């Protein structure tokens, strides 16, 4: 039995942050009912015009284990239907723009009238309060807002890196949000009281940059972008290896590691070179050192360099692409990271499983992502106990759309 079995979650979301919360909860056994509309599908599900309504890998990953209920939230009866579902549920997850839930009559105080001990988690780009809370945000661009884009670049680059092409803040706030929901469930178990959780994606990302903020506040120094360099290490960075666009990252921090590195690389003469006698000297002559290291690594594959240095006690790892992950990474395969799913319209699909193992109640992936509206009949009949006549009426009025 998974720890959240018996907990029902109503998901009113789009994108990645809110769906990530509900996905994590589902992996621990919660029943998640995702509210969708045929008029405006989840942005990650895609639309019929693109021909990918039930064929999106992003959606398949973010919505596995879930059930899909189609409801037209532009109708009063549709909103009433969702309220009825919340009445028999435990958690509501939402990440729409600030004001949408209020316009639907589903603000926290209003939900408490329906379900006094309800737990509501709200995931916004900038949270629910503050002068910029109503600003429209987009996951990849949030990295620029809290400083990641500034740091994620090479020194003296003419322009910032721009959009990072990924949604780190969404996923980070989603995982943190799932932990917050579990804490709220424990609190409710002890006190009988629900909770409203206000989660900011930007703040979730900013929480990773504490040392850089401290550098500014304490030393009045902008740390700035460092590219592949790292203070206190030399050599350090990504070095070219045999093959097309193949690289190995390595880092030498101490004199013991430097000695081990030189011997493992087959260049003990570097230990006698005064340019590299001590960390400060190696830092001062980084360009010359990087050229020598690169000349050595080019003769070997990334895996050979990494294995050689790891055996000598030096930090190193190959830079792996997607093919490497699936074909040449026995570690992930041995730990069961990959999960095979049979998607109804996409066919066989491989995705990553939950990243933790538990001796008694490991989280699980037990169902593919739902087709749009796949569980509408189940929800209205089995959970809401509607009659055939009521279902027919709602259908004819376009409420279950």
Give the CATH level 1 class of the largest domain.
Alpha Beta
Order of helices and strands: EHEHEHEHHEHHHEHHEEHHHHEHHEEHH
**CATH A-level architecture of the largest domain:** 3-Layer(aba) Sandwich
User: What is the count of helical runs?
Assistant: 18
Proportion of strand residues: 5-15%
Strand order of the largest sheet: 3-2-1-4-5-6
Q: What report would you give on this structure?
A:
- With about 400 residues, this protein is an alpha/beta fold.
- The protein has 2 domains: about 10-205 and about 335-395, 3-Layer(aba) Sandwich (Rossmann fold); about 235-325, formyl-coa transferase, domain 3 (2-Layer Sandwich), CATH 3.30.1540.10.
- The protein has helices at about 15-25, 55-60, 75-85, 100-105, 110-115, 140-145, 150, 170-190, 200-205, 210-220, 255-265, 280-285, 285-295, 300-310, 320-325, 330-335, 375-385, 390-395; strands at about 10, 30-35, 65-70, 90-95, 120-125, 195-200, 235-240, 245-250, 315-320, 340-345, 345-350.
- A 6-stranded parallel β-sheet has the order 3-2-1-4-5-6, sandwiched between helices. It has a 3-stranded antiparallel β-sheet with strand order 7-8-9.
- α1 packs across α8 (about 170-190).
- The radius of gyration is 26 Å and the shape is elongated.
- The two termini are about 35 Å apart.
- The model has no long low-confidence stretch (mean pLDDT about 95).
């Amino acid at each position: 039995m998974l720890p959240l079995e018996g907990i029902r979650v109503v998901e009113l979301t789009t994108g990645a942050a809110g769906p990530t919360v509900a996905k994590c909860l589902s992996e621990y056994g919660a029943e998640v009912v995702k509210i969708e509309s045929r008029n405006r599908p989840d942005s990650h599900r895609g639309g019929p015009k693109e021909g990918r309504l039930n064929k999106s890998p992003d959606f398949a990953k973010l919505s596995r284990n879930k059930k899909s209920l189609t409801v037209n939230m532009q109708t009063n009866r549709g909103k009433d239907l969702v309220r009825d579902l919340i009445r028999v549920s435990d958690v509501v997850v939402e990440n729409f723009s600030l004001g949408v839930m209020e316009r639907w009559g589903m603000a926290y105080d209003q939900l408490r009238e329906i379900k006094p001990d309800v737990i509501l988690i709200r995931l916004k780009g900038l949270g629910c309060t503050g002068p910029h809370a109503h600003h429209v945000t987009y996951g990849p661009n949030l990295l620029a807002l809290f400083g990641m884009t500034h740091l994620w670049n090479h020194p003296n680059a003419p322009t910032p890196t721009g959009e990072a092409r990924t949604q780190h803040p969404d996923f980070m706030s989603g995982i943190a949000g799932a932990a917050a929901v579990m804490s709220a469930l424990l609190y409710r178990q002890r006190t009988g009281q629900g909770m409203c959780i206000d989660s900011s994606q930007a703040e979730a990302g900013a929480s990773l940059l504490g040392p850089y903020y401290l550098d500014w506040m304490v030393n009045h120094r902008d740390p700035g972008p460092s590219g592949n360099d790292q203070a206190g290490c030399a050599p350090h960075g990504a070095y070219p290896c045999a093959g097309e666009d193949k690289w190995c990252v390595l880092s030498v921090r101490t004199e013991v590691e430097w000695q081990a590195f030189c011997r493992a690389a087959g260049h003990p003469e570097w230990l006698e070179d005064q340019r590299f006698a001590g960390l400060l000297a190696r830092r001062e002559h980084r360009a010359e050192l990087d050229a020598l290291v690169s000349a050595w690594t080019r003769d070997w594959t990334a895996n050979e360099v990494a294995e050689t240095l790891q055996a000598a006690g030096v930090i190193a790892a190959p830079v792996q692409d997607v093919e490497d992950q699936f074909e040449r990474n026995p570690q992930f395969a041995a730990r069961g990271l990959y999960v095979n799913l049979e998607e109804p319209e996409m066919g066989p699909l491989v995705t990553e499983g939950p990243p933790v193992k538990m001796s008694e109640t490991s989280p699980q992936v037990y169902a593919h992502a739902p087709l749009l509206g796949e569980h509408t009949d189940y929800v209205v009949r089995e959970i809401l106990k509607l009659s055939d006549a009521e279902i027919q009426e709602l259908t004819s009025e376009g409420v279950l759309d």
